[in-house]
Structures are given as structure tokens and as C-alpha cells.
Amino acid sequence: IAALAPSLRGSDGTSLLRGPPECEQHAAFTRDPRLSRCVTFSRDGTFFGWCNGHSVSVVRSSDGSIVSTFDLPKTALLEFSPLNKILITWQPYNSKTMKTPKSYRLSGQLIKALYQKKVDSWLVFIHDSVELPSCKTRTFFSDTIANKLHMQKVSNFALSPGGQPSKVAVYVPGSKGAPSFVRLYQYPVFGGSSAALANKSFFKADKVTMQWNKKASAVLVMASTEVDKTGASYYGEQTLHYLAVNGETALVQLPKNGPIYDVVWSPNSSEFCVVYGFMPAKATIFNLKCDPVFDFGTGPRNAAYYSPQGHILVLAGFGNLRGQMEVWDVKKYKQVAKPQAPDATHFSWSPDGEYVVTATCSPRLRVSNGYKIWHYTGSVVHKWEMPSGSELWEVLWQPFPDSCFPERPVKYQATPSDLGTTQALPTQVYRPPALRHLPATASSKLHEEEPPQNMRPGVLWEKSLSKSALKNQRKREAKKAAKQELKPEPGPPLEPATITNSQSEPTSGDPETDKKIKNLKKKLKAIEELREQQVSGKVLQKNQVTEIC
């Protein structure tokens, strides 16, 4: 059975641990007390590398034995190739050396040094002998360019994960009234009018983030603008687009206005989750047809995290929210736990899908640094607080191949722990001191809470609802049925001077009176529409607010 090994990087140095549930210092790894610039694992977790400002070291994760040491004190980024044969380093641009990314064999031999001034997309591997900087493919062992994508103004690209054949998504921003677009290509077929596997054009895009699914069959593109010209959002405006390698494209329709906080693919590559909308935000799972499958309702959340096996989903609210986490079984769409991790700046799943780590790290928060390891049922199994004056900078799980940890049945009972759980307490409406001795009365809510609902046609959601939610739903249905029964049956025609509420136009016999009634109805309808827009979060103009009042 593979043993998990989290790594810690902070002001006290670099450590490699063994655990959970018990987390102890790795017996074969000597803690490096020097300040580390960066740490990384190879993709299968075999090797662990770090730079301490004096050199770059690579060790075996299993026994801590030294594999190689490089005299590269200014290294800021490290990356192993997928087959663990090559180590790539990046250091800040230096006018003397001019070469920032450097490729080394793990034996210590320098293979290639390249110039890459920007740190964004500094290097992306296709495999261990080909790399893709700035959409050119070049072998490490010669200066010959193997292939090149001839396209002007490419500002971003994303390489597909997994093995061959590799695919690449390319983004070109719009200009002079022309739309922006994203195209998908399969390496090495870059030329010709029909070379693109898919093409999606759109407006309102200052920048994009592109995310492939694990099977490299589709990519999600979130386009965003820096400024929302309507004034509805401080965060700009975002749209979400879908492209598949079979040529299908779509705009993902989100039913609630507001920013898109997070988009994440399920590890099974057949669905994705979007967290969006003005607070309280909605979270919805979509299938590959971009149809909603399940809506988690509204809540204080801005991030989503699938377990590595894809059977559990955590919806969380970090940053300026209180750290509430909702743990869901995504096969039964049933909530497992609702723990709370206030002041957390980091969240990640362990490779076995049983534990998560939350951490408070610098420089985001320079006080109360530390980390907690939880079982997904809400129990805290390990807790570590940094000593006074020390800072925690990074917590990183050792990765493992997918086959190491198969999916396990989901548990709903909290795992026993000496540290207990931190379930979120139910919030209560604030009552002034002068009214606290009086009986509680029904109060209006600032936001209307939306319950979860299964969006699949013909699926009954009652099984997953709580008893109270199910009771409230049945009350609403009974109330609606009672209203239908109380509707008056059509009676004899009313007098000509009487204004009716039927769908036919009212007549009073006086054309001037009919005109006034029609105008009054128009005003009432406009006021009702403005109220609906205000409830949905849209910012109204002063004259519109005055009209509502």
C-alpha cells in the first residue's frame, strides 16, 4: 500500500512528512533548514525536488536518497518531465545569461538552455523529447524546429494532458471589431483550412483561461473582461464556452447573473461543475451537452474540488468567506458533511481520496499559519500550528498514479478523532437587545435561499431531501393546489363599466378611461420587472429606484 507524503515549505525550511492520519517527519529525509524558493514532485511522486537558494536537489520520495544536485541558486520554478527523465528549471531573466529555462537529465547533464522572459506558460511538455514554447515544437537535442503553428497574435495556449496524440487549444484575442476565437489542433497537423478540430468565436474577452478534461476530449474556456460595462459586477464579466475535439461547441448557459468563481472538470471527464452568480452563489453540474444535471442551490461558496476518484465533490467558500465546506456524494447527490475551516488559503485532496488538507499560508495571511488534515466526513485527524514568528508558505501532497488508489464506498458517519469536528453552526437572524425577550416572529430574508434540485428529466429528488426540506416542499405544493381550487369559475358577463381581471381588454364604454387603464397597467408591469431585476442582484439607476418606491 502506497504511503502518503505531504511536503511543507516555510520560513523554518523544507520538510517531508509521512501520513495521514498520523503525520510525522519522514525518517529518511533530513529537513532542510534553509529558505526554499520552490518545491515539486514528479508526476508519479517518485522524485521530490526543491531549491534552497544555494542549489537544486532531487531525492527519491521513498527513501530520501539523493538523485542529483545542481548548482542553480536562483532557480524559482521546477518541473519534471512526464517520464521522469528530464528536469526543467526557470530563473528570473538575466541580461548576462539570457537563458532562463534550462533542461537537465537527472544525471546532471545540461541538455538545452532557452530564452523565455515571461513566467506565464514558461514551458509545457508534450513528452520527454519535445517541448512547446510559444507554439513552436523543437527537439531538445538539436536547434531544428520540428513543427510550427502559423497563426498571428496567439496570446495563450493550453496543451492537452495524457499521452499521444497531443492536442493544443490556441486563443487569439479579437481586434478592430473582430471576435476573439479559440481553436483546437492535434499535433502535428497544424496546416490547412480544415486542420482545426474545433473553432469557437466570441466577444467580450480581455483574457481567457482554458482547461482540458482528463481524457483530452474537450476543453472549457472561461472568457473574462476587466470591466463590466453594465456596472452590475465589480469583477468584470465572464462567459463560459465548451469545445470538443469532435467539433461540437456551445455556450454554457448559467441561470444566475454574476461572476464565475470556479470551473472544474470531474476526473471521469464526462461532467463539470461551475460555481457562479452573485452571493449566495449557485453551483451546478453540467454534462458534455452543457445541460444541467444537478443544481446544488445557493450558498456561501466560491470554489469546487473533485476528489481524485471523482466520487466526492467539495464546495467551499474561502477568501472573503467564512471557510464553509459542503461535502457531497456526487453519485447519490447526497450531502456527507458540512465542516468549516476559517481563514483557510489553501485546499487540496490527498491522492487516495480519503483526506483533504486546509492551510493558512503566507503571504496571504501572515498570522495563525498552520494546516489541518481532515477526513472528508468532517473529522480533523491532524493539526499543526506554526510557532510564533514562523510562516508557512506551501503544503503539497505527493502525487501517485491513478491505479494506486481505487474508489472506495462513501462514508456518512464522521470518522472518530481526538480533535473532533468543526461542523458549521446554523446561523440565526440578528435581533436587537430590546426585542430578545419577545417571541420570535417570521422575518424577511435578505436573499431567497434556493434548495438543491436534480435537473435530470424524470428523476425524483425527494429521496435526497432532508425531512424539513421535504416537508416545506410538500407545503408549497399543497398551497399551490389550494389556490388552483379556489379560482372562481367563469360567471355571467360583468357590467360594461366594470374593470375585469380577465385576459381580455377591459372596456368601460369611455375610450379615454380605457386608455388610462391601459397605461396604468403598463406602469405596474414595468415596476414589477424592475423589482425582479433588483432581487436578482442587478444595480438599478436612481430614477428606477425612485419609480419602485
Automatic annotation (TrEMBL):
Keywords: Coiled coil, Initiation factor, Protein biosynthesis, Repeat, Translation regulation, WD repeat
GO biological process: regulation of translation
Segments forming domain Translation initiation factor beta propellor-like: 200-395
Region (Disordered): 442-519
Residue spans of biased composition, Basic and acidic residues class: 479-488
PANTHER family membership: EUKARYOTIC TRANSLATION INITIATION FACTOR 2A
Name this polypeptide is given: Eukaryotic translation initiation factor 2A
Species this protein is from: Echeneis naucrates
